[in-house]
Amino acid sequence: MRRGRFTEDQIIGVLREHEAGVKTADLCRKHGISDATFYNWKAKYGGMTVSEAARLRALEDENRRLKKLLAESMLDVSALKDLLGKN
Predict the structure, then answer these.
(1) Which pTM was predicted?
(2) Which one of 34, 43, 45, 65 is most buried, by most CB atoms within 10 A?
(3) Rounded CA gap, 28 and 66, in Å?
(4) pLDDT tens, N- to C-terminus, the chain (87 residues)
(5) Residue 8's closest CA among 63, 64, 61?
(6) Residue 21, helix vs strand vs coil
(7) C-beta atoms surrounding 15 within 10 Å
(8) pLDDT tens-digit profile of 28-53?
(9) Which residues, in sequence order, are CB contacts of 45 under 8 Å at separation 6+?
(10) CA distance 75 to 85
């Protein structure tokens, strides 16, 4: 997956500027992002602190790892069933 050029800390900083009263168009121009990017960030990180965003990242990574383990074990089970079914 493509890694953005903004860190979670920077994203939350941009959102805090918006909460302080800076207009969306001015923020987007200042930071070089589109309105859609800003609103996607707001949907994902709105109201979060930096520590909460780090926790979210850790949980997403753990979830990704667990899904991979589940998929691998399901493949193993399927292969064993096929092997036992042919005998």
Answers:
(1) 0.68
(2) 45
(3) 36
(4) 456 799 989 999 999 999 999 999 999 999 999 999 999 999 999 988 999 989 999 999 999 999 999 999 999 999 999 999 875
(5) 61
(6) coil
(7) 19
(8) 999 999 999 999 999 999 988 999 98
(9) 8, 11, 12, 15, 53
(10) 15
Tokens of residue 74, six digits: 């399901």
Buried b / exposed e across 53-85, counting CB within 10 Å, b at 16+? Answer: beeeeeeeeeeeeeeeeeeeeeeeeeeeeeeee
The 8-class DSSP code of residue 9 comes to: H
Residue in the structure block whose two tokens are 């939350």? 12
Q: Which of 69, 14, 71, 62 is nearest to 37 (CA)?
A: 14
Whole-angstrom distance, CA of residue 41 vs CA of residue 70: 30
